[in-house]
Amino acid sequence: xxxxxxxxxxxxxxxxxxxxxxxxxxxxxxxxxxxxxxxxxxxxxxxxxxxxxxxxxxxxxxxxxxxxxxxxxxxxxxxxxxxxxxxxxxxxxxxxxxxxxxxxxxxxxxxxxxxxxxxxxxxxxxxxxxxx
Length: 132
Fold this sequence. Notes:
This protein is mainly α and 132 residues long. The chain has a domain at 15-96. It has five helices and two strands. It has a two-stranded parallel ribbon with strand order 1-2. α1 crosses α3. The longest helix is centred in the first third of the chain and has 25 residues, at 15-39. The radius of gyration is 18 Å and the shape is globular.
């Protein structure tokens, strides 16, 4: 199973689809871990929480209506919805201002970057860098 940081083999048609594919990948990874723990006789009794900063992607996890624009991610949608229905996963919205992983995956506005960097206890570089 590919890691979450690897390139996705498909091209997304919208930001909601891209985020939803990320949610589906996270749910697949957590499902594997839950099954491993179950086999080791350490069952997880609470739902695993997956955070997503795209409201449309979060609503797709619970909305039973299949939209025409989402039929190309139908397998992912059914997989995630089943895990949500079974109570194994909860997908919750988190504002982008609390999505700390973004510091590793995309360019951020300076103020947000500095806030994330500070919360990770990483200081400013002491040597000047290119462009700085």
